Amino acid sequence: MAKKITKKTAVKRAPQDPARKPLKLDEIVGQDAARAALRRAIAQGGGAGSTLILGPEGIGRFKLALAAAREILDSGSSHEPATVSDGPSTGSNRAGALVDGGRHPDLMILEPDEGIGGVRTAISLLQRKPALAPRQVLIVRDADRMARAAHDALLKTLEEPPAGAAVFVVAADETLLPDTVVSRCRRVRARALDVAETVAVLEKIGVPTVLARFAPGAPGQVLYLHETGGATDAELLVTTLRRPPPDPIGALTPLTRRRKGEDSKGHRRRLAAVLGAAASELRGALPGSESVLRCVVDALGSLSANANPSIVLADLALWKLRTNPPTHR
């Protein structure tokens, strides 16, 4: 079922948590071009239509969509398009507060696992008259992880959103989206942050800046690693691969176990983030880490291809044996 941001779902984005607080467009770090493109769309048509926000994991794609939604919903009760501005809109403070608190009735978020049923429900809800804002806003999160049937169900809405609604489609990998989806959206590209920008974001949200090495340019991914314990897992993985102990498979066994409350999908996501973090750390150690880096990248590819996590890690643990097989005389 399509999810409006309600009190229940807003817990993850509570304003008192600086890592989760929705931002205004001008508060988002390092995305000047993307912010300008979103503001042009809002100025020209009040944000109506479909917008595809692209960029790597953890760089703020969803925050951009949420900030643009806030600006649209905060533009007052008039149905007139917003005016061009270099700063945030000056509309209803109440609307902005509702977005920040996760309780705006005209904002919906569709998660990738909600399937075709969720898409149909979201489309049905978009037919309603807006309760407070000039138009309703739907954010389709991680659309590149949705099933093809869900993509197909979205097509007509993307081409012509009902009642002038604004639809933001957020994705990391454009190649995983059907051309029919991409062609129906205006495209906005977000970029990876530079080192100084990444550090500034991490300092602002209270994450140790030393962890930036695990996901350069992607503070959101660093935050995820920090919150899930993935940073500790990445340090264990890199240490084990660089200096293999007598039992490297046993050393990596903790990574094969699910955390409390973690399902198989969540475990795979965390393990993929750990492998990506290890790869970033090893790239920073070049030269001298080329062989093990290739093995980590191969392991990440195997995991993405739905290989068993335990087998992937066991194979990776024996990387030195595979790349330097013993010779028998």
Structural summary, described in words:
- This protein has 329 residues and is of the alpha/beta class.
- It has 2 domains: 3-189, Rossmann fold; 229-323, no CATH class.
- The chain contains 15 helices and 6 strands.
- The chain has helices spanning 32-45, 61-73, 93-100, 115-126, 148-159, 179-182, 195-205, 219-228, 230-242, 248-251, 253-256, 264-283, 290-304, 309-317, 319-323, and strands at 3-4, 49-54, 107-110, 137-140, 166-171, 186-189.
- It has a 6-stranded mixed sheet, with helices on both faces.
- It is elongated, with a radius of gyration of 22 Å.
How would you summarize this macromolecular structure in one to three sentences?
Helix content is 47%, strand content 8%. The chain has 329 residues and is α/β, with parallel strands linked by helices.
Question: Could you name the key traits of this structure?
Answer:
329 residues, alpha/beta, Rossmann fold, 2 domains, 15 helices, 47% helix
Which secondary structure elements does this structure contain, and how are they paired or packed?
Elements: E1 3-4, H1 32-45, E2 49-54, H2 61-73, H3 93-100, E3 107-110, H4 115-126, E4 137-140, H5 148-159, E5 166-171, H6 179-182, E6 186-189, H7 195-205, H8 219-228, H9 230-242, H10 248-251, H11 253-256, H12 264-283, H13 290-304, H14 309-317, H15 319-323
Parallel strand pairs: 2-5, 2-6, 3-4, 4-5
Antiparallel strand pairs: 1-3
Helix pairs in contact: 1-2, 2-3, 4-5, 8-12, 9-12, 12-13, 13-14
